[in-house]
Amino acid sequence: MPKPRRSRTLAAALVLAAAAAVLTGCSGLDFRESICRDGEYPVLQVNSTGSGCMPDDEEPMDGYVRYPEGKVPEHVDDKWDVYWRTHTLDEKGDIIPAS
Questions:
Q1: Using CA atoms, how far apart are residues 12 and 20, in angstroms rounded to an integer?
Q2: For the chain, which end, N or C, has fewer CB atoms within 10 Å of the first or last residue's CB respectively?
Q3: How far is Cα 88 from Cα 77, in angstroms, rounded to an integer?
């Protein structure tokens, strides 16, 4: 009779370990929220840290520009998303500190 009890204890331990992994984010799955939806690209407001998304087939609206090549945020809190919180572009396209 001790064998079934050991199996139940082991099964319970495995269930608890799996639940702990999921609840603590250690499940091996990485979810990162995209800056824009599929079919869109991110734009930056000139002289501001404001941003938005534009359809791939449209140019940025007045007062907005495309991010410089290689410095485009892709996911919330990625390297470039964090960077552009304290920097912006001026009217000439130069990177300047955000005020």
A1: 12
A2: N
A3: 16
Number of domains forming the structure of the chain: 2
Question: How crowded is residue 96: how many other Cβ atoms within 10 Å of its Cβ?
Answer: 11
Same domain, 88 and 56: yes
Instruction: Tell whether 35 is covered by a domain.
Output: no
Q: Of 20-34, 43-57, 65-79, which range is least confident?
A: 20-34
In 10 A of CB 95, how many CB atoms?
12
DSSP secondary structure, 38-96, as one string: TTEEEEEETTSS-EEEEETTSPPPTTEEEPPTT----BTTSHHHHHTTSEEE-TTS-EE
Contact 93, 65 (CB under 8 A): yes
For residues 65 and 89, give the distance between their C-alpha atoms in angstroms, rounded to a whole number.
8
Tokens for 75? 């996911």
